[in-house]
């Protein structure tokens, strides 16, 4: 008898890097992910279909990622990238100082040749491959905000609505019929609140309800700490209903612009939340306590100074980069099976010790960034394959997507979910702090200006093009990637440069719209921006029409 279910939830996202240059933070970011994560995942999905493995992933693919994976320039550049990697490995073969280094260089030659062969076999259509996997029942696709904007910190409800509407339309265009689930960018959620002028801002769940979105995933701490409405024991991480809580007068003065609310009415929003299970997260995320830190796995951080290829293994937690031993693919592959079996045993133990609401079989939601697998943890996609096959051979555990579980077992209890994210401290400070305050000031001013542009725009074709491109730049400006990269110090100057580029183009386009320009110079500038930033070709800028205090669709 099945004791419970495991939902492997993968969130796939990369910032908009099309035509953003190359090393160290340009378009090669997506090329690496295609080679090491998305193509291996596509190969695994095809193998599951071939072998009739009863696996089902919950796979989030952000709209801005889908746009890049479908972009001709990005795909052509990927082929050139893989060919460069092959040439680099071939040079390493000629200059290898040992048989082991020569064998590893040949390993990489074959790795990239296999990637190109699969890429050619699917006609370069990664998005189509994921759509087929969805049609075949192997994945349940989650949508997301268009450019992975950090929704709770946006100042205008028009921007939140546009991010969700554009995101959902883009997911539909690439993957077919809409899904009921969404991955909230950075797992960031906020309930309803009064803003600084006393206007009620709808909670994120109300925006989701208005768009027929049925569920999302929240950080563990938010679910465990949530004030319960009949909540069960803390080992149950969902699904819970997220009620729409209408509020009465404030009970205290505003704190940071958000007043304390007094709920006076609660109704079912029809939106549910799942919490990430922490133990499974630690096993996979943690480089020190989890599987990726195993001594046999490939070391991510040490690269050959000439070719850039990674020839070393983790070796040990205390080993300095200079002391890393050479990577042994066969030994790493053997560890994959061990860790897959261990993971499934841990899931089975969690399901045996936990309980579902109302006595139904419980669900373990193991949620991760997709790019962890293959890119950061080189053997990670093989591990996913091994986990699915391990679960398929058991009678007590089964894989199930979050949407299917929700259909079978709707939430019987609700939770007053607090404002939260999966950042440090489970709050907003990873994205909103002294380092990023100027970004948010720019974003908030652009939000207001975009509403004004929509209100005054003419119906002239040239003006419609300028307005649509301004809306694209606005969406790209909103991306959570830029403040994240600045706050974490991973690529602060690069992120500021990218942010400034979108901001400058938005302002220039706004001036064209405001001046009602249709001259040749204005048209040339609009065309230049369209070539630089081309996502969301069917974007309707009217989605940005002012609607403060309302979550409704346009």
Explain what you see.
This protein has 554 residues and is an alpha/beta fold. It has 2 domains: 1-143 and 179-258 and 273-293 and 357-423, Glycoside hydrolase 38, N terminal domain (7-stranded beta/alpha barrel); 437-544, Families 57/38 glycoside transferase, middle domain (immunoglobulin/albumin-binding domain-like), CATH 1.20.1430.10. The chain is built from 17 helices and 14 strands. The protein has helices spanning 28-51, 63-69, 72-95, 99-121, 126-135, 157-175, 204-210, 220-225, 278-285, 329-353, 380-392, 402-408, 437-456, 461-477, 481-488, 492-514, 520-532; strands spanning 4-12, 57-61, 139-142, 193-194, 200-201, 215-218, 227-229, 240-241, 244-247, 263-267, 272-275, 363-369, 397-399, 414-416. The strands form 5 sheets. Strands 1, 2, 3, 12 and 13 form a 5-stranded parallel β-sheet that branches. A 3-stranded mixed β-sheet has the order 6-11-8. α1 (28-51) links the parallel β1 (4-12) and β2. α1 (28-51) packs across α3. Mean pLDDT is 90; it is low at 228-236, 249-256 and 259-264.
Supply database-style keywords.
alpha/beta, 7-stranded beta/alpha barrel, immunoglobulin/albumin-binding domain-like, 5-stranded parallel sheet, 3-stranded mixed sheet, globular
Mean pLDDT: 90
- Give the tally of β-strands: 14
Give the biggest beta sheet: 5 strands, parallel
Rg from Cα: 24 Å
CATH architecture of the largest domain: Alpha-Beta Barrel
Task: Assign the CATH class of the largest domain.
Answer: Alpha Beta
Q: What is the third-level CATH name, the topology of the largest domain?
A: 7-stranded beta/alpha barrel
Distance between the termini: 47 Å
Q: Per the principal axes of the C-alpha atoms, what is the gross shape? A: globular
Low-confidence stretches: 228-236, 249-256, 259-264
Oligomer: single chain
User: How many domains, as an integer?
Assistant: 2
The H-level CATH homologous superfamily of the largest domain, spelled out, is: Glycoside hydrolase 38, N terminal domain
Could you estimate the helical fraction of the residues in percent? 40-55%
H/I helix tally: 17
> Class by helix and strand content?
alpha/beta
> What is the strand content?
5-15%
